[in-house]
Amino acid sequence: MAVxxxxxxxxxxxxxxxxxxxxxxxxxxxxxxxxxxTMHQAxxxxxxxxxxxVLRRVVVIDIGEGLIELINPxxxxxxxxxxxxxxxxxxxxxxxxxxxxNKVTVSAQDRHGNPFTIKGExxxxxxxxxxxxxxxxxxxxxxxxxxx
Length: 148
Ligand code: NI
Hints:
alpha+beta; Peptide Deformylase; 5-stranded antiparallel sheet; two-stranded antiparallel ribbon; 2 helices
């Protein structure tokens, strides 16, 4: 495993669309392992492959309840709303208030290509939304609301 460089604000790759993963192979496993190590080293709760410069639909999340790997994730339902501070490893030291759904259901594949469904509430729902947005070139800074 290796820690990879995290792409920072201003790099145009962050605005690009990531492509579907079609091959569940050694190369994907290495990417996932490196992403996990990179996220943990940076003390983040989520990381999308585009943030290490790889335009594939791959996400890792760890909000302190264990590692979640999402390949080709799609939000299939959402409910309620929550507003809280949000940050991103590509915008170090910055944060802003963002409203997200409070509960989301995600369909994805695991590293071997097996489909599964996972639900998240609160911070986990926020992490799902934030990371899946990255796969479509969307950034939390687009959603920041002014302080009231
Ligand atoms: Ni981010």
